């Protein structure tokens, strides 16, 4: 179809609105000092910690998010709609609020904190706290994209498999999951990206210590106080990592749509 | 008729002149008992950018100032001093800037954005904040280095962290905090929520927190006194109101409110 010109004009303005701030940031980068700025001890520690915790958070998202998406897409029970909106709450919740909620759950005085303390597990001010905060905010991304894919693919093949005598686990392993694998991958990549950018909940819940809890966004926030050049350089690193991840997500997401169309 | 008009103009000019004299030299003369008393001449809206630690006192002072000068409104913006300076340098519409340290005020002065020389109006020192009941049994600064004490401080990049570093060096104590926060309010939050056993915050933070924390003063705090300067920002549309507010804060009314909140005299 041919789009009206005004639609294209509005789209161009929208695109400029998103891209211009990035351009403005790139223009402020101190290129002469760029490499030393991003390779300082604290910068490298923050980047490595961010990658490590985001990866751990993504694994947790897959472990818990895939069953959640399956339950939401394949079962029907009273209160399911309410449950779905509640599970997706971290998407719209201000991260600081998430951090406060996590503090009251896993903190030393929290709902579960004392139990963990009895078990000898210390969550406060540990890298575990960072992973928990990141998983909390990233989980809905995986659940949402996977649930959508599960509904699009439909359950006909699963029904056929079941009538031919496959056990529920076999159906899940041989039919359902292979069908939605691309969506699961793109959901995982999106979760990773969200975990990488997590700031508010981490700051509120985990604290900030180099190498332990100070992830890249926290490092940027701190460096901005005294060293704007480092803050801008690190921001650019985060943007580049995010761009790579988003393009990866798109690449893995596309076959899922083609496959779904081919199947239907 | 013409004589009357002339004399009226003369009277008005005199009143205005007195007002200028009063407001212009308030910091030096405590005699300026009514620094904003010439209310009729003040009109306009100003935005005051003030350090986060000034939230309670400046909210109070702005209300009093507005009541004394019915033609004025004072909008307040609180954040970390460093963030505020960055915003002003990038063109944020501030009329007055009150900083929690001289370093950040110097950044603004270096950018030629202060109208006149900044005036110091308050000081603040660090204190140890512990949760009620003092679970870790902290009694002095050296106790903070204890192996089982979960200590939270500000990062050395921010003013309260610089002060903590200086104090620790003076006391000859090596601190091993479990977290270095970006702002003093985050440190206080970790103590009030009992996540941390102790935190280094300002005396005024403990005063403002009420029963949520206990303060433990220590002698070494005198080695790192934070000074708070204030100055009008250049290019204000209501420069006279901005100047009057600065004089009000640095005058006796401001001093009374600030001392009551725990701030020291500059």
Automatic annotation (TrEMBL), chain A:
It is a multi-pass membrane protein. One of its GO terms (cellular component) is plasma membrane. The gene is modB. PROSITE patterns: ABC_TM1 (PS50928). Belongs to the binding-protein-dependent transport system permease family. CysTW subfamily. The keyword Chaperone does not apply. Part of the binding-protein-dependent transport system for molybdenum; probably responsible for the translocation of the substrate across the membrane. It comes from the Bacteria. Residues 47-249 form the ABC transmembrane type-1 domain. GO terms for molecular function: molybdate ion transmembrane transporter activity. It is found in: Cell membrane. Keywords: Cell membrane, Membrane, Molybdenum, Transmembrane, Transmembrane helix, Transport. The chain crosses the membrane at residues 7-27, 47-73, 85-106, 118-146, 175-196, 231-249. It holds the Pfam family BPD_transp_1. This is Molybdenum transport system permease. The keyword Transmembrane applies.
TrEMBL record, chain B:
GO terms for molecular function: metal ion binding; molybdate ion binding. GO terms for biological process: molybdate ion transport. The gene is modA. InterPro entries: ModA, ModA/WtpA. Residues 1-21 form the signal peptide. Belongs to the bacterial solute-binding protein ModA family. Keywords: Metal-binding, Molybdenum, Signal. It comes from the Bacteria. Pfam families: SBP_bac_11. It comes from Cryobacterium adonitolivorans. Molybdate binds at residues 53, 81, 184, 202. Gene3D superfamilies: Periplasmic binding protein-like II (3.40.190.10). This is Molybdate ABC transporter substrate-binding protein.
